[in-house]
Amino acid sequence: MTEPVTKPVLVIPQLIVGLGNPEPKYDQTRHNIGFAAVDALARAWQIPLAENRKFQGEYGEGIASGGVKVRLLKPLTYMNRSGQSIQAVTNWYKVPSESVLIIYDDLDLPLGKTRLRLSGSAGGHNGMKSAIAHLSTQNFPRLRIGIGKPKNAANADNSDTVAHVLGKFSASETQLMSLVLQFVVECVELTLKQGVEKAMNRCNSYTGEIPKS
After folding, report:
1. Distance of CA 99 to the CA centre of its chain
2. 28: domain CATH number?
3. What is the mean pLDDT of residues 44-64?
4. What is the pTM of this model?
């Protein structure tokens, strides 16, 4: 008798989190691309975001394209305590960890590249370290957006890296990132319709190029 084939469990995000830092001085910086992604989703789905003290973040819920109910979150705890805010929402609404999709910046990916994964380590990202600590697992999907390395990365010291991460995009980079954010919306909508695993092929194929000025 043949064993029944078990279908992989569909992972559909219920809570979508963008990582960043509060305060106007961090707006439009590379480290805040997760915030920008959630803002783009909120605009696309017409979900208003408002500060929620209980969740220590900007929070909104509504219906995404395709009729799926979603919750959006931008933690206002500062990056290295992002997990507190995420845990507040998951505990309150009983959202399982595998249904939390976290969007954040990645130094190790070329500018504008995107990578969707079902799980993984923090890779040195303080926001992700906090998320993993508070969710007590690495098994939740994440979408990384490449911000590239600083110039002369081989000789860059820690202060160069910090300056790069907390720096703002150039004019041509800003053009590219607005295209990337459109792609991120498309990619997240795909995860809601087909599940994270199926969406990975499409979401990992973006070949963003900086527009010619």
Report:
1. 13
2. 3.40.50.1470
3. 98
4. 0.92
Question: CA 143 to CA 104: how far, in whole Å?
Answer: 7
The verdict on residue 79 lying in a domain is yes
Phi/psi for 169 (5° steps) reads -70, 150
Q: What is the mean pLDDT of residues 137-163?
A: 86
Helix (H, G, I), strand (E, B) or coil at 165: helix
Pairing relationship of beta strands 142-146 and 100-106 according to DSSP bridges: parallel
Q: How many domains does the chain have?
A: 1
Q: What is the mean pLDDT of the chain?
A: 92
Residue 33 domain-assigned (yes or no): yes
**Residue 124 in tokens:** 């040195």
Whether residue 3 lies inside any domain: the answer is: no
Q: Residue 58: give the domain boundaries.
A: 15-203
What tens digit of pLDDT does each residue of 75-88 get?
Answer: 999 999 999 999 99
- Cα separation, 133 vs 128, in Å, equals 8
Q: Determine the pLDDT at residue 144.
A: 98
Amino acid at 127: G
Strand extents, DSSP E, the chain: 15-18, 50-52, 57-63, 69-75, 100-106, 114-117, 142-146
Question: In the annotation, is 125 catalytic?
Answer: no
With beta carbons less than 8 A apart as the criterion, state whether 74 and 38 touch.
Answer: yes
209 is a domain residue: no
